[in-house]
Amino acid sequence: MRSDTSSSPARRLRRLAERRSRRRPAIVAASLAVGLLATAGVTGGLPVSSAQAVSANQAEAPFNDFALVSYSLPVEPAMIAGSAEASDVVTAAREALATAEGALDAAETVQADIAAAGVDLGATDAGVATDELSQATERLERGTDAQHTIFLPGLTEDVVDLVDPVDARVTELRAALDAAIAEKARLEAEAAEKARLEAEAAAASEAAAAAARTPAAPAAPNPVYATGGTAGDNSPAGAQASARAMLPEYGWGDDQFACLVSLWNKESGWNYQAYNRSSGATGIPQALPGSKMASAGGDWQTNAATQVRWGLGYIAGRYGSPCGAWSHSQSVGWY
Questions:
Q1: Is the pLDDT at 19 greater than 90, yes or no?
Q2: Residue 104: closest CA among 21, 17, 165, 179
Q3: What is the rounded (10 degree) CA torsion for 11, 13, 16, 20?
Q4: Phi and psi of 39, rounded to 5°?
Q5: Which of 45, 88, 138, 305 could anchor a disulfide with 242, C-beta 3.0 to 4.6 Å?
Q6: Taking 90 as the threshold, does the pLDDT of residue 199 lie above it?
Q7: Dihedral (CA of 214, 224, 323, 264) sign
């Protein structure tokens, strides 16, 4: 970004004031020297005869009668102050001063902008050398103020020649600064985009991990009910009828019956003689060992209703309800 250029006039006035304060003694001394030289030139250029005549006249009439001595200095092939040519020279000098001030302001501004931007220009960032231009500008200002038109063309040329390299250096630095700012913005945009993509990937990974940790919802029970039997017999239909009649004893409604049928369809198919050779689980509820069912009745091996009663008690104590047992079985494969 560029610094506020509204301070340029203030900097220019400050610089002018500093220069004038430094050169004021030099201007006074130069004026005195010019006066002394003019006096010496007039008196020193009198012919000897004229000087003797003056002395004689002074001796004869020191105060009452004296003659003025006149002498004309030769006009050098230089510009006469107030002439049109001298005016053009002064105008050119002032234009050169304005151009130099603009170049110095631009150099100060670009260096301030580089510092404010906080970017690294590498070897390019070596500043702007303005000492020679500043000194030449001061000399031209002194010549312009003193109306030394004979020296102004050379001083003006010096300033003009020194402005060009300063302007070129400012242009170089400004281009390097603009490029560095654009590169910084590009890198920041890339970093922001990378951070956004990483955040999205992390969120997706976390969602996948959370989904893996959450057990799948159990399938809704949709059992196939057994038919062809009555309550009290050992057929699957009879065992289911016995179980349905026992649900109210545990405080369960008929809504739990579908879960129970689905659960024991999966475990034993409601076969009171079912036996798992690998684990030793026995009967409709697949008790392990089967002898546990003796707590519900001594006829546990031959009576489906006894096995059902033991199984309902086990479910109530372990899972709270047939649907609770069914959900667990769906999640881990057993209950």
A1: no
A2: 165
A3: -130
A4: -65, -45
A5: 305
A6: yes
A7: negative
